Amino acid sequence: MEISQLIGMEDPYFFNSQWGLMDDSVNMAFIDHACPVFMEPSPTPRPSKQLKTSSDQQQQQPIKTSTPHDHILAERKRREKLSQRFIALSALVPGLKKMDKASVLGDAIKYLKSLQEKVKTLEEEVTKANVFVGKSTHDDEGGRTLLLLPEVEARFWGKDVLIRVHCEKKSSIVEETLALIQKHHLSIINTTAMAFATSALDITVVAQMDKEFTFTIKDLVNNLRTGLKRFM
Amino acid sequence: MEISQLIGMEDPYFFNSQWGLMDDSVNMAFIDHACPVFMEPSPTPRPSKQLKTSSDQQQQQPIKTSTPHDHILAERKRREKLSQRFIALSALVPGLKKMDKASVLGDAIKYLKSLQEKVKTLEEEVTKANVFVGKSTHDDEGGRTLLLLPEVEARFWGKDVLIRVHCEKKSSIVEETLALIQKHHLSIINTTAMAFATSALDITVVAQMDKEFTFTIKDLVNNLRTGLKRFM
DNA sequence: TGGGACACGTGAAAC
DNA sequence: TGTTTCACGTGTCCC
């Protein structure tokens, strides 16, 4: 409120010392990049230059009848926001040596690229590497293994999936297992079930993930285990 | 807080061509953060030579006269570099709706955070998956296990033995595996071999120990692994 | 018409 | 010393 009164004397155009430099804005037109902002030759309307001292606050408005200092206030706010985000960005980039804006941007770009690459390779590794998951077993000290059936194990290689189930021999357990697998958008390629000892069953399934479907080994194993448990 | 500061220094923001403004540096103090220099191979599409127009503008410059135009050019170059990096950064951030600088920075920050989080969870997933690795592979220490083919796993139930072998698909590997098993005085009851992915083979064998013969799971697994390794 | 975004030139300050 | 980076106010464009 009172601010507007305090700076009534905006009276711009103080540095018309080298006004001839301004027609260089024509050249700037082709320097400008990306966003299609075209600078016009800038007619540069000559305002009646009259420098007013600070004591004189005659509020006359030549052309710019708009708010004179809301503009600079808004610009300050914009700069402040930008600076804050620069700081926030620099806080996220590790090993930042130089803190100037260009370096922050440059290192952030490099770091972002490396992160994208890392995510890519990690995702590949997760889905393509051979991994066992979700063995519900506990090793005791003797090297023996206590079996908490059902035991489910899966490994991925791209879209191929190998699933092993070791469970108690029960009627319809094979059908139930295959149905569970199919519910995960897996196309069964091959399967075998072998009896082991007196009451155990060892099921092996090779399947393929349907296109556009991805899930983690962990989820698959957990879902199969909990699904089979309901049958036990 | 900041508003009071801004209002308080509102007045000294005016300018005349003289050298009379000094307290401007006071308010700069809390925002300013200076930086070292940095140079990089930059395309610099346009040198933008400042050619002298017919209406030469050299005059006055009471005291300064140091480098009036190099400064402008340097600043232009700096801005150009910054803008270029903004464009490069915006090209890396997917799903960018608004293209203004603040949005680019903000979205880049959010994207960077999400990538960091993703890397973290992915790395966790990979290591956790490795922790769960079962008995068959090489290194037992620290709960970690190296995933080295061939993987061999065996379990006993009385005289019954279940053996699983996951190995590279090679000719005669099944026969070799069965031969190795038989050398351990194991009578093969049932067996199956399933191809998995492009070059893997998953063999499951159910056998029975011959009378009078006993050995530990560990010995059986190790012998099978070393025997199969010679084939790889 | 008014607020948001941008590039500009400029003075100051950090090496 | 000069080179480099910064924030500032400003004009202008664009919704």
TrEMBL record, chains A, B:
It comes from the Eukaryota. It is found in: Nucleus. The lineage of its organism: Eukaryota, Viridiplantae, Streptophyta, Embryophyta, Tracheophyta. PANTHER family: BHLH TRANSCRIPTION FACTOR. Keywords: Coiled coil, Nucleus, Transcription, Transcription regulation. Residues 66-115 form the BHLH domain. SMART domains: HLH. The keyword Glycosyltransferase does not apply. Residues 39-69 are annotated as: Disordered. GO terms for cellular component: nucleus. Residues 105-132 form a coiled coil. It comes from Ambrosia artemisiifolia (Common ragweed). SUPFAM superfamilies: HLH, helix-loop-helix DNA-binding domain. This is BHLH domain-containing protein. InterPro entries: bHLH_dom, bHLH_transcription_regulator, HLH_DNA-bd_sf. One of its GO terms (molecular function) is protein dimerization activity. Residues 48-66 have a biased composition (Low complexity).
